[in-house]
Amino acid sequence: MTAQILDGAALSKRLRAEFKVRADELALQGHRPGLAVILVGENPASQVYVRNKIKACHEAGMISFDFPFPADVAPAIVLQKIAELNHDPAVHGILVQLPLPPQFDEAEVLAAIRPEKDVDGFHAANVGALMQGDPRFIPCTPYGVMKLLAETGVDLNGKEAVVIGRSNIVGKPMAMLLLHAGCTVTVCHSRTKDLNAHTRRADILVAAIGKPKFVTADMVKPGALVIDVGINRLPAEAGGGLCGDVDFEAVKPIAGAITPVPGGVGPMTIAMLLANTLTSAERFAEGTVK
Ligand SMILES: Nc1nc2c(c(=O)[nH]1)N[C@@H](CN(C=O)c1ccc(C(=O)N[C@@H](CCC(=O)O)C(=O)O)cc1)CN2
User: Fold this and answer.
1) What are the Cα distances from residue 169, in Å, to 24, 124, 211, 255, 282?
2) What's the CA angle centered on 237, arms 234 and 243, to 5 degrees?
3) 63-106 pLDDT, tens per residue?
4) Catalytic hit among 81, 97, 117, 221
5) How does residue 240 score in pLDDT terms, banded at 50, 70 and 90?
6) CATH top-level class of 140-266
7) Which residue's C-alpha comes closest to atom 22 of ligand 1?
8) Pairing relation of β-strands 232-233 and 225-228?
9) Is 140-266 in the same CATH topology as 30-114?
10) ipTM above 0.90 for this complex
11) At which positions is NADP(+) bound (predicted)?
12) Residue 208, Cβ neighbours under 10 Å: how many?
């Protein structure tokens, strides 16, 4: 058996072309979608992600408003900017790139974003709505994973799903989405005993732990859908480049489907950010949100 490769780069490109059509329609009605992007500091990976988000935004016919701040900025300055953006009618989505420098209370910053413009879906109100099965904005990475799983055509109802990782950005919302899709969900983490016993019975295995090639072939059930959320930068002495949390070459012959890194979940994260921004702009345009 060789796995279906879930090509997130191709799917993202397809979706972004569809978004452009919708964005242009909104622009004709005077509501071109606008995304405000706040980046604090010079974390090289964050700089790449933000650059890619802004580029994707422009290519999809949306406006970006870019706010870079130095690493030592006082949190009050960033909070003030968020307050302004909350009231700006040209801005339909606000994103604060994570992680933030240590002087910030991340929860305080995320709580300052108006939930109706929280296109990352990290505000407690949006997290709560997702928990209740009535999502307003779905966090971009898990949202992208659900789109990739849909590409396999596999009915998720009744399937065993195992998520490795319990972060607020990926692990927890991922578990919730899989639960709502009818899966029986297990969330594993650093304290989980006998991890392999859990992963080996997973029909859907999502790895989001940030450890290069952590998931090995012996951890995977034959035919499983394996989703790799990890993006690990290898040191030069290990050959450099990016690798995921899954040992791709070893797991590919066993899995039913698998995402590559790069080119799997990462590009879908950006596509779903645009999807959320577009949704927000449509809500403002139709008056569902004021
Ligand atoms: N405010 C947010 N901060 C962070 C999020 C998020 O969703 N919102 N997620 C991650 C980083 N992230 C988006 O911001 C992100 C990560 C990776 C990619 C991506 O396209 N990866 C490429 C490789 C790119 C490279 O060369 O490094 C791939 O996998 O093919 C996009 C977005 C943490 N912060």
Assistant:
1) 30, 12, 16, 25, 24
2) 20
3) 999 999 999 999 999 999 999 999 999 999 999 999 999 999 99
4) 97
5) confident
6) alpha beta
7) 266
8) unpaired
9) yes
10) yes
11) 165-167, 231
12) 23
Fold type of domain 30-114: Rossmann fold (3.40.50)
Cβ–ligand 1 contact at 255 (below 6 Å): no
Distance between CA atoms of residues 47 and 49, nearest Å: 6
Q: Which two tokens stand for residue 234?
A: 């290898």
Domain boundaries, the chain: 30-114, 140-266
Tens of pLDDT along 156-181? 999 999 999 999 999 999 999 999 99
Taking alpha carbons only, the member of 183, 188, 206, 210 closest to residue 198 is: 188
3 state SS of 39? strand
Among 185, 245, 252, which Cα is nearest to 225's? 252
Q: Give the amino acid at 75.
A: P
Give the pair of three-digit tokens for residue 139.
């966090």
263 CB near ligand 1 (under 6 Å): yes
